[in-house]
Amino acid sequence: MTDFQFDLIATDGAARRGRISTPRGQINTPAFMPVGTAATVKAMYPEQVAETGAEVLLGNTYHLMLRPGAERIASLGGLHEFMDWQKPILTDSGGFQVMSLSKLRKLTEEGVTFQSHIDGSKHELTPERSIEIQILLDSDIIMQLDECLALPAEHKEMERAMELSLRWADRSKAAFNKSKGRGLFGIVQGGDNAELRARSAHGLRDIGFHGYSVGGLAVGEPQDVMFRVLDEVVPELPQDAPHYLMGVGKPDDILGAIERGIDMFDCVHPTRAGRHGHAYTRMGVVNLKNARHKDDPRPLDESSPNPNCRRFSRAYLHHLVRTEEILGAMVLSQVNLSYYQELTAGARSAIERGQFTDFAAETRAGWARGDIAAL
């Protein structure tokens, strides 16, 4: 079985073009991972997700351990077989959802006990159990269990959570035990404090991981704070391993993070925005709820590589959104995921050519010009 491997192909400033190799296929970076929380990307067939250019999906340990259960998925052939997605899958550790969704929880050195947000049943998640679940799911990239705090937070709390996450990282590594063909990622914590982030990054480097994630961002802080933290922490990460910014984000977040040396992203935003009538294009966001689209026969973007951007009129998409027809959510989810893949593919190509600064400027200029004026 092929081992997990990362190759850095090109750099342009801090921006990086790389490739992750796994037994189930390659992931070209910078990469955006659509989120298949409960073993499905909402409103899309697996083949439609692949057609957008996605090479890896994210699954969620918390949701899948509660329903249908990791052991059940394992007995049915693993997550890839269960959801019919044969490319790589990254699973998060479940820690963020335990902190944000569970009805009652108790955090100790051992782990966290919590009540399910679904039925109130009691569960325990430890670093060892999180790794066990992710291996049962047959994940290709596994995340350590960590504690993620919302920002802003007191320094003492950020330090406590960071140090606990480091100890859990050590236990996660021991539980992973060099599982063949998979990658294990550590998670840098420390809130918005540069000294705590550096301590976390150095601690994770000492433990040793296949990849390094920046967690605890996109939790309510302004974009400039997120970018400042990335400016401070990314130089502390090993340059021969992938850098993953968890839970981010909107296209301008992604572009700014690529500029700062991030390789991997995930977020529910593009599919959620699609279900709410918002389309991401090279001209920025088009709100198809707006009445100005109701008599507009033009497509969303006649020059888009996505056929659905060229196929349906704005008037029809407006109608689907206003009547809450399922097709509207399906089309706009696909449109948005396609644009995210177009954005990261464009970044990869520009980095290889040494023209990423120009690419970023042109992309931002397109967003600033905005949508074509209504007829």
Give the arrangement of secondary structure elements.
Elements lengths: L4 E8 L2 E8 L2 E5 L1 E4 L11 H6 L5 E4 H6 L3 H6 L3 H5 L5 E4 L2 H7 L3 E3 L4 E4 L6 E4 L1 H10 L4 E3 L11 H22 L6 E6 L5 H14 L3 E4 L8 H11 L9 E3 L5 H9 L4 E4 L1 H7 L2 E4 L2 E4 L19 H5 L2 H9 L3 H28 L2 H14 L6
Parallel strand pairs: 4-14, 5-6, 6-10, 10-11, 11-12, 12-13, 13-14
Antiparallel strand pairs: 1-2, 2-3, 7-8, 8-9, 15-16
Helix pairs in contact: 6-7, 7-8, 11-14, 13-14, 14-15
Estimated share of beta-strand residues = 15-25%
Most strands sheet: 8 strands, parallel
Give Rg in angstroms: 20 Å
Helix content: 40-55%
How are the strands of the biggest sheet laid out side by side?
4-14-13-12-11-10-6-5
Low-confidence stretches: none
Span between termini: 57 Å
Categorize the overall geometry. Answer: globular
Q: What is the CATH architecture annotation of the largest domain? A: Alpha-Beta Barrel
Number of domains: 2
Number of DSSP helical runs: 15
* CATH fold title of the largest domain: TIM Barrel
Total count of strands: 16
Give the C-level CATH assignment of the largest domain: Alpha Beta
- What is the overall pLDDT average? 95
CATH superfamily membership of the largest domain, which one?
Answer: Queuine tRNA-ribosyltransferase-like
- What oligomeric state do the depicted chains represent? single chain
Structural class category: alpha/beta
